[in-house]
Amino acid sequence: MVKRAGWLVAILAFVALGIWKFRPSAGRETAKQATEVDRPETQRRVVGRRISETAAETDQVRESPRHSVDDLTKSKLDVRAKLVRDLERQQTVLEAQAAELRRAEGDERLAYAASLDLPDNTTKILLPKYNAARLELETYRKSGIGEAHPIHREKVAEIEKLKGDLDHGVANLEQLLDGQLKITVTRLKLNKSGKP
Hints:
Blueprint: H1 2-17, H2 24-38, H3 40-63, H4 69-103, H5 106-115, H6 123-143, H7 150-193
């Protein structure tokens, strides 16, 4: 009974390890292979094979083309040239935006300012409110509400406040464009001179 229990434990161990797949000869072959790996001459063969594989990999690394200092310098110059082109393009865009914002007047100026994709552009939010308030005022006038009426006065005050906020927002955008333009020009000069 003890012998059977020992064999049963061994078979279960082989099955659990995936060594024996219910073929009695497979377990014997695996056991034979396991004892062969433990032999010193087998270990020497395995170590020798690993050494030769490592040597071959080392030779491949030695034979692979290395990047020379010239290649690295070229790639740095390519990156710098691309950065300079991008900065020049950005400078051109900022100059055109600032010039158009200064050239435009009245509603055209407000519409252009609202179309700019800049951070903290409050004109995008205020312009639709301003236009809606003006439209309401025009509707009041057409319906017969006079200038002395409280609703009319309230709407005029709202429109004046929105107009002041819009003018302030446009002035802030001009300053923002000028600041971004100065930063871009400075970065462009530094990159053209070779400084990071």
